[in-house]
């Protein structure tokens, strides 16, 4: 039986994830997933692609999202009273341009110090609307493009076998920053064939395979680049016709609800 092995949400885009046993799933993904984002003064999002240290920044969601505790190596923790409706700040991802709610000068200064360049911290605006593309459309918060990233343990096992055959060290699943990790599928990359599934009280629909950038080569514990794996080995067998290598799938939420680690994953098509 396939089941949920792990659930993770990432409160601040590009920063460390939080593993949970249960999660509320909204139309935009796991609750609080990428609900905040660090941007340049012009609004371009900050990411591990250019700033791998972001992996070592942790944001703990407190009091139902009313506060965040920010922590990073070498600086004092910062407690932020989140702003749900205030001054707007330009904000953008790869596929979306809009505005977020400025979270204040103190948070902006804190991220600017950690990243070593001027930065602004923003949250979702009440009017935030975003339609995601793919085979089944949906919506998302500040994620790159889609609500849910789903991977499987069997896919990682198969990849790590290839990495080991090169004499290199296996990589952990956190390199791929998934929201849902599935255990129990016997074959690697079974997720590629899934078009709709249900888990707990949630239904998800396939949008597209996930094309990987350089982020999987960042050690998520230290915030330092640690390539060339796993991208080097993925390039041997996971090249996509449109370019790049893939691992995992991106999904839209077709029925919001709740799910938990251990829930059965039922594939409908």
From TrEMBL:
Transmembrane segments: none annotated. GO terms for molecular function: catalytic activity; molybdenum ion binding; pyridoxal phosphate binding. Signal peptide: none annotated. This is MOSC domain-containing protein. Residues 119-268 form the MOSC domain.
């Amino acid at each position: 039986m396939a089941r949920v092995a792990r659930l993770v949400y990432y409160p601040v885009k590009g920063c460390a994830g939080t593993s949970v046993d249960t999660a509320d799933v909204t139309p935009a993904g796991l609750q609080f997933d990428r609900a905040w984002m660090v941007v340049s003064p012009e609004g371009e999002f900050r990411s591990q692609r250019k700033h791998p240290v972001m992996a070592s920044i942790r944001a703990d969601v407190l009091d139902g999202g009313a506060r965040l505790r920010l922590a990073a190596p070498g600086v004092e923790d910062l407690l932020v009273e989140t702003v749900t409706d205030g001054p707007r700040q330009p904000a953008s991802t790869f596929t979306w341009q809009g505005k977020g709610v400025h979270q204040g000068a103190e948070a902006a200064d804190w991220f600017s110090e950690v990243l070593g360049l001027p930065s602004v911290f923003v949250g979702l605006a009440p009017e935030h609307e975003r339609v995601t593309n793919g085979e089944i459309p949906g919506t998302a918060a500040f994620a790159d493009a889609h609500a849910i990233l789903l991977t499987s343990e069997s896919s990682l096992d198969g990849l790590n076998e290839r990495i080991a055959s090169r004499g290199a060290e296996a990589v952990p699943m956190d390199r791929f920053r998934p929201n849902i990790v599935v255990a129990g599928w016997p074959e690697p990359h079974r997720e590629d064939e899934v078009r709709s599934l249900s888990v707990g009280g949630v239904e998800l629909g396939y949008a597209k395979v996930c094309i990987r950038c350089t982020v999987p080569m960042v050690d998520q514990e230290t915030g330092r680049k640690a390539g060339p794996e796993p991208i080097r080995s993925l390039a041997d067998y996971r090249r996509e016709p449109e370019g790049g290598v893939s691992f995992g799938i991106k999904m839209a939420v077709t029925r919001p609800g709740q799910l938990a680690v251990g829930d059965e994953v039922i594939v409908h098509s």
